[in-house]
Amino acid sequence: MDTAANIFGKACGYGGLYVFGRREYHSNIKGLHSYFHLRVAQKELLANVNDVNLLAAFDAETVVRHVPEVMPEGGIIVDAMEMDTKVLSIPTLPPEYRVELEKFMKENGIGETLKDILAYAEKKKVKVFPVPYRALLAKIGKNLNIPQLSKITRMINVLTIGVSFALLKYDKILVEKAVKATFPEKIAAMNVTALNEAYDYAVRTFKNNLNFKLEKTDVKEERIFVTGNQAVAMGKILGGCRVQTYYPITPAADESEYLEEHQIVKTGSEEEAIVVIQTEDEIAAINSASGAALAGARAATSTSGPGFSLMAEGLGWAGNSEVPVVVTYYQRGAPATGLPTRHGQADLRFAMHAGHGEFPRIILASGDIKECFYDAAKAFNLAEKYQMPVIHLIDKAMANCSQTYPVFPHADFKIDRGELLTEKDVEGKEYLRFRFTENGVSPRVPLGTKGGVHWYTGDEHNESGHISEEVPNRTMMMEKRMKKLLLVEKEVPVEDKMNFYGDKTSENVVVSWGSPKGAIIESINMLKEEGLYLGFLQMRMLHPLPVEHVKRYLAGRKRIIDIEDNYTAQLGGVIKEKTGITANFQILKYTGRPTTTTEVYNALKAILTGKALDRQVLTFGN
Amino acid sequence: METKPSDFRVPDVYADWCAGCGDFGIMNALQMAFAELGLEPHRVVMVSGIGCSGKEPHNVKVNGVHTLHGRALPFAMGIKVANPELEVLAIGGDGDGLGIGAGHFVNAGRRNLDMTYIIHNNGVYGLTKGQASPTLQRNLQTKSLPKPNINEAVNPIGLAIISGYTFVARSYAYDVKHLTTTIKQAIQHKGLAFIDCLQPCPTYNDINTKDWYAGEDRKDANGKPQSRLYKLEETGFDPVVRDWKEDWQKKAAALEKAQEWGDRIPIGVFYKKEYESTFEDRIASRIPFYMSRPPAKQKLSNEKGISTVDLSEFLNGLKTS
What is the distance between the alpha carbons of residues A440 and A479, in angstroms, rounded to a whole number? Predict the structure, then answer.
């Protein structure tokens, strides 16, 4: 399914089209309902919508689940062999969904087979395109001289792509190009054969097909089709990360694997490399990353909620010992194991407060895949400059969404290692790792620097890094560490901490963070066309919160609308705590599925037209 | 470089162990081993966990990283991987390394980083007032235990051997000479070296005391105590694996020796295999310039401070135009 989506996205990209893709999958290896939702347009796309124009299903369950989303005049591609499948007997349907489905079927007078469901769709002017996948495969197998069908059943995804693009009347050459770019040569050749077979079959068979089409455009600029996981990995390399540790966890692990795959990077005439270590657990992951940082490498670890829970103690050590370590935190459906492959934004408070005691940390939250790239790089500058752990909060929606972007410009990215001393600076002088300074930052040497022998301890310590429980020293050390946050507040430019979109002077302002950003921007643009004006404050640095700037943007507004993918409106709570300003409307979602533009548009419109409750809960998705 | 043990002392720090604590012996042995090997203090990093043993680095003048309970090995790994030129020693207690940190103990063996791990083994959690540690034998009741120990003891030597450590030895904190020699061998060993360092806890372990190790309760006909400890090297035991074909045989012999406890306790080297690739070798097989330009030594920016990375390798795979 991923491969199919990737080919589809690439093929659209080759035709100069923008794609936004969302991947949904279960926590299993195969068998349960997975799908990829792709939006294609000539202009840049920022989020998902609810509607589906063309549903391409490999199996009956996909049709059943997504039928209500397919728009009139839209189409459904379906396996001809599945037509007589009794839908309530599909073994992968969870019991609670079966009850719902049965009710839906009864209410709409739908019979028991897939054919009946499709007939219902056809009544709503949806067109159905049954494809005999197995017959096509048999024919392809014969052409390729592969008698065993089981060896090529995987090619069903390419068949679906062929049929889809044929129905969309899209240039076949571009699809072939995408297939070739996706597979190794030999397999690509087989898949091109399959693609052509399916494409031509659909052209021959479905004469009266969709009344819309996908048209290529001419584009000069270079573009990429990229996921959040990939963007973070690239950002880390750009930012100088040279040790990455991780323990396998969804949806973070893809980033580490991608880094390992591209371990060696060119730097002009030379080469550099990142060492990726798969550790025995997340405890080892954060602590070995801290170790690497102490030795002078830029180091990071990547995880999601359950892993971060295990990292809490190590995070505190890093805060106490002023270690520049970066934690990329992919939020997913929680608590506990929660919805391990789904989306969520419920870990802001946890990221802010994880670890016992009080220690400084920085929390960055990217709002889209492009920001994931730059924030991943900048995190290392912040970590080293202020000598504290930086938590880069991302969410599953961004991690696994794919989006088309012009290549991220990065030729002028500056590395700022902060007060990093060398042998020359310390030789012949007394070196104190935790020297008291005016701003709280003590010049740092990597372990192994001649003349710079030093100590670290998780205990409270004196300037040398030896254990100390003396009261004046303790007081000064606490203050030294904590006041570095004031520097962050003062020095980090406001454009790295927040973005403001939409109408600056409107009495209505949306406040949010993370992946709802795209849906919010699209919605406020749509509402603007209807004469409904809104501003949008997107928070990117959540700790330390840029309090004065937040106040400047929010104070005096009539409606402050907090949009988050969690139950308790965590950002709204933090803003209230730090600024005294309360969001008077909440749009929340905690289904594990990302917020769509359709949902946000509807919810905002309801507020602006006085038809909404203070708290709206969104539930769209499959 | 010429160094003396006194070069490794830390005058500003008072070693706050109990009188008679084995940690002093280990501290002295470390300082002597470093001096005898001529190590430069700035090139050495001692990484410790939590407990009385965790304070060891504060009393030795090399870089010290006093970490979290059970986590010395992960920190040590990060340091060593980032800069393999450093001489890294992980230091911990028996509870630290074999209780809370047991997962790291086992997994470190799978990697065989070229570093040394010394466990201070006294059978009790001293800093929390003498609870049973994972190495205390079952049914023993040291003085602060309300009931006899209900758990079996873990065998540190055996666990190290089957986990993949390529140098496995035992020594005794009060035999500073033997311990110094063992530490030197461990440091010089190419690969992950483990030392199970037996030590009395004069405050909380009233069973495995200095006198118990010395065999004061086992006098011969002439009234001479029969020490429980004996040196493997004096028995002709050959721990060295010279060929992969004899690896299991050597492991089995070492495991058999590791079973001995009670009246006869072997110290010395149980197992040693040098031809195994280290984690550094394995990284270098993927990154040819790893040893000359490890993560901590890479240049991240040009003279203008701009990142010099060329992302085209990544981008080419993602391009849609």
Answer: 8
Q: Which tokens belong to A490?
A: 């003062």
Query: For residues B21 and B60, what is the distance between their CA atoms, to the nearest angstrom?
Result: 16
The whole-angstrom distance between B213's CA and the closest CA on chain A is 33
C-alpha B89/C-alpha B116 separation (Å) is 5
- What gap in Å lies between CA A282 and CA A309, rounded to an integer? 9
Residues of chain B neighbouring A281 (CB-CB closer than 8 A)? 103
**pLDDT for residue A147:** 85
The pLDDT tens digits of the residues spanning A85-122 come to 999 999 999 999 999 999 999 999 999 999 999 999 99
Cα–Cα distance measured from residue B111 to residue B132, given in angstroms and rounded to the nearest whole number = 30
Domain assignment of residue B294, yes or no: no
Instruction: Answer whether residue A226 shows pLDDT above 70.
Output: yes
Tens-place pLDDT, residues B213-266: 999 999 999 999 999 999 999 999 999 999 999 999 999 999 999 999 999 999
Query: Is residue B309 in a domain?
Result: no
CA distance A541 to A366: 9
ipTM > 0.85, yes or no: yes
Domains of chain A plus CATH, in order, are 2-8+49-205 (3.40.920.10), 225-406 (3.40.50.970), 423-491 (no CATH), 497-618 (3.40.50.920)
Q: With respect to residue B52, please indicate whether it lies within any of the assigned structural domains.
A: yes
Among A270, A274, A284, beta carbon nearest to B74? A284
Instruction: Read off the amino acid at residue A35.
Output: Y
What's the whole-number average pLDDT of chain A?
Answer: 96
Structure tokens at A567: 């139950």
Instruction: Tell me how many degrees the CA angle A326-A329-A332 measures, rounded to the nearest 5.
Output: 175
Please state the rounded mean pLDDT for residues A272-295: 98
CB distance B184 to B144 below 8 Å = no
Rounded Cα distance, A363 and A351, in Å: 7
Give bridge partners of residue A536 from the DSSP assignment.
A501, A510
Tell me the pairing of strands A455-457 and A390-395. Answer: unpaired
Q: If residue A230 lies in a helix (H) or strand (E), which one and from where to where?
A: helix A228-238
CATH code, domain carrying B59: 3.40.50.970
Q: Among A237, A425, A262, which Cα is nearest to B295's? A: A237
Give the pLDDT confidence score for residue A268 in this predicted structure: 79
Mean pLDDT of B61-87: 98
Chain A residues with CB-CB distance to B59 below 8 A: none
Report the number of distinct structural domains present in chain B: 1
Q: What is each CA distance from B273 to A58, A596, B110, B319, in whole angstroms?
A: 55, 59, 14, 49
Question: B65–A458: do the CB atoms touch at under 8 Å?
Answer: no
Cis peptide before A251 (omega within 30 of 0): yes
| N-term to C-term CA, chain A | 16
In a domain, B300, yes or no: no
Instruction: Tell me if A291 and B77 make a contact (CB, 8 A cut-off).
Output: yes
Cα distances (Å, whole numbers) of residue B295 to A89, A450, B80, B206: 56, 18, 10, 48
Sequence-ordered strand ranges (E) for chain B: 44-48, 63-66, 87-93, 116-121, 124-125, 131-132, 167-172, 193-198, 229-231, 240-241, 265-273
Closest of A565, A588, A407, A594 to residue A23, by C-alpha: A594
List of chain B residues whose C-beta atoms are within 8 Å of the C-beta of residue A312 = none
Domain range for B57 is 5-283
**CA atoms of A111 and B309, how far apart (whole Å):** 61
Q: Which residues contact B109 (CB under 8 A, 6 or more apart)?
A: B160, B163, B164, B165, B192
Inter-chain touch A279–B107, beta carbons under 8 Å: yes
Q: Do residue B63 and residue A453 have CB atoms under 8 angstroms apart? A: yes
B239: closest CA of chain A, how far (Å): 29
Q: Tokens 């790893």: give the residue.
A: B290
pTM score: 0.97
